[in-house]
Amino acid sequence: MGKILVTGGAGYIGSHTCVELLSSxxxxxxxxxxxxxxxxxxxxxxxxxxxxLDLVIxxxxxxxxxxxxxxxxxxxxxxxxxxxxxxxxxxxxxxxYYENNVSGTILLLEKMKEYNVKNIVxxxxxTVYGDPHEVPIKEGFPLKPYNPYGKTKRMVEMILEDLYESxxxxxxxxxxxxxxxxxxxxxxIGEDPRGIPNxxxxxxxxxxxxxxxxxxxxGNDYPTKDGTGVRDFIHVKDLALGHVxxxxxxxxxxxxxxxxxxxxxxxxxxxxxxxxEKACKKEIPYSIEPRRPGDxxxxxxxxxxxxxxxxxxxxxxxEKMAEDAWNWQKNNPDGYGDN
Length: 339
Prior knowledge:
By secondary structure, this protein is of the alpha/beta class. It has helices spanning 12-23, 39-49, 63-72, 87-92, 94-114, 148-166, 200-208, 236-250, 269-280, 304-310, 318-331; strands at 3-7, 27-32, 54-57, 77-80, 119-125, 171-177, 179-181, 215-218, 230-231, 233-235, 256-261, 267-268, 286-289, 298-299.
């Protein structure tokens, strides 16, 4: 088994992926600046897996940090999560997003090239598709991201595509994921957003736990089954296992590939709300608000390629996602407690 460098490994998806990597027998090195994450997540990853990992507190934009890691650790692959991820914030502060998400990745790739580490799994996003012309969304659909966050993801994909064209000894996985939700079943690690959550499910759980008053549902006049937006929600553990499969695939030296990671099912906002009400055994107050600009009616994945090529498939449905997310929130009402 190899040694994997996980950038942003203390974050939500990163920490769950570290658990699955350690459980699968990989050695793990995490680099994280802890700006949007917690050192406690790493301690809990170690207690869940019963294994240790190396944590380097630092930024991927710091050349000295990267040199130190690649010189001292015999890393053979990288899973790259480190990046800002709030759509609204990206519209407000585009330069911050381009500087971190794009420039940070370029420096990381330069260092990988210098130290001859040519295997990378990149955390991309379904936002690269923009407003799809139809659903389910296939990997070959046109790419039209319409916010700076989505554009940074697509830009990095293009950089990786060009890098592969220039040097076919790279092995590159572009994983476009849909909406990650849920938490590890132990309730020890989960999503801990800074400030008011941008995403639907941590917002719901914070209403349920009494931290926020009510959920705002933006738009109930979409052409969907109940008028609310439909999205493909995927359990974070399924997503983490998708990264383990991508690392296994990369060891077969497949070149460059791109895969959607979703369930292939669309759940409406009100269906998600009902699943959470069932999980926490209480009504969750909500109000209908006008549509937000830029929101689309439906977005869910075609998962056939993931099944055929990666031999990976999501196992958990919305009820399990809601149960695990609620289990994390009620046991950790203030997240890791260091926000």
